[in-house]
Amino acid sequence: MSRIGKQPVPVPSNVKVAVSGQDVQIEGPLGKLSWAPRPEVAVEFDEAGKQILVTRREDTRTGRALHGLSRALIFNMVEGVTKGYEKKLEIVGVGYVATVQNNRLELRVGFANEVKLPIPAGLTVTCPDQTHVSIKGSDKQKVGQFAAEVRAVRKPEPYKGKGIRYEGEIVRRKAGKAMTK
Question: Is there a shared CATH topology between the 9-82 domain and the 85-166 domain?
């Protein structure tokens, strides 16, 4: 039995859960999320105990693997509609700037042209100042994916440390060719 999969997912009082067939819908103060688990996994909502139970229908390798994954994804959905998720990015480099205009994130990070990324639906992107970007949303996967796409525009390079990095990320610096002599 999966150690994570057998744990019930607690549901706060301000969250509504609807399980119909193979579709799980969770609605809370920060939004509404839905997900359809694979047929190897069964999901039930216990209204008396205010918890979601995830069980596996078959004891195959795939069923065992999906048991804990499904429980973790449902837990992340409940967490997302109550507290939400946030990723913070910082931009390091002379002249590197980020702004939000017309539902697009515009980045000037050393290229000839500005990089304009459309902000996906369900996400809130703000720039507290020109060198910081904050991405908030209720869907953990969307928040992480958009943050990774922004970071991929200009990854931090190891010689000067310039680029877009997650807040608190440590960039391992290299010495450069002048240090070899």
Answer: yes
Q: Where are the beta strands (DSSP E) in 93-150?
A: 97-101, 104-108, 115-118, 123-126, 132-137
Angle at CA of residue 94, ends 93 and 95, nearest 5°: 110
Asked if residue 2 has pLDDT above 80, the reply is no
pTM for the full model? 0.91
CATH code for the domain defined by 9-82: 3.90.930.12
- Domain residue spans of the chain: 9-82, 85-166
| Type and span of the H or E element at 64 | helix 61-82
pLDDT of residue 134: 97
Q: Is it the case that residue 181 has pLDDT exceeding 90?
A: no
Q: Which homologous superfamily does the CATH classification assign to the domain defined by 85-166? A: Ribosomal protein L6 (3.90.930.12)
- Rounded to whole angstroms, the Cα distance separating 155 from 13 reads 42
Rounded Cα distance, 73 and 115, in Å: 32
> What is the per-residue pLDDT across 14-24, written as a single tens digit (0 to 9) for each?
999 999 988 99
